[in-house]
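Dear support,

I submitted the protein below through the web form. The confirmation email said the job was done, but the results page showed an empty box. After a refresh the structure appeared. I'm attaching both so you can tell me whether what I see now is the final result or a partial one.
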Amino acid sequence: MTDDGPYGADEFATVPRIDGAAGVPDAYQRLWVPHRIAYIQSNHVEEPDDGCPFCRAPSLPDEEALIVARGEHAFVLLNLFPYNSGHLLVCPYRHVPLYDEATDDEVREIGALTQTAMRVLRADSRCDGFNIGLNQGRIAGAGVADHLHQHVVPRWASDANFFPIIAETKALPVLLGDTRAALAAAWPA
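What the results page shows now:
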């Protein structure tokens, strides 16, 4: 170690300086993800009087609820706290907690909307694959355990890095409203 700190004076030569910026340059890269503040401020807990977000969403304008498409028995909306950009949820309108309690019509439409979501995401964002799944019950990881919802998460060959593992952080390059608008425009009529 030198008198210049643990990295030495030469280590900071590669760190860009911003004139007028406060602080001393360091070796850290900054990733600004302002959309995550909603999750942080929610304290990860829904207020008891809020009701079910998936029952409430269809009564709101599509832009406000982040709804991408509506069917007869189910609808598609963006996950408010996505794993990746374009992370969609396919939900029945009916408040039902488990897949085996869904009607045949709901199951068929959830499946059809999931297939369309995959086609739209592949065309719009050129993803390389998908994670598709249902977390049934809180013990299985369902954030909203009382309302059935299927995750459709687009994946890219280059989307995994150390951030989710080491820093518990995901880099999301597109804002939710912009993603919703692009996917809704690409959704077949």
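Response: this is the final, complete result; the empty box was a page-load delay. The two ends are 64 Å apart (CA to CA).
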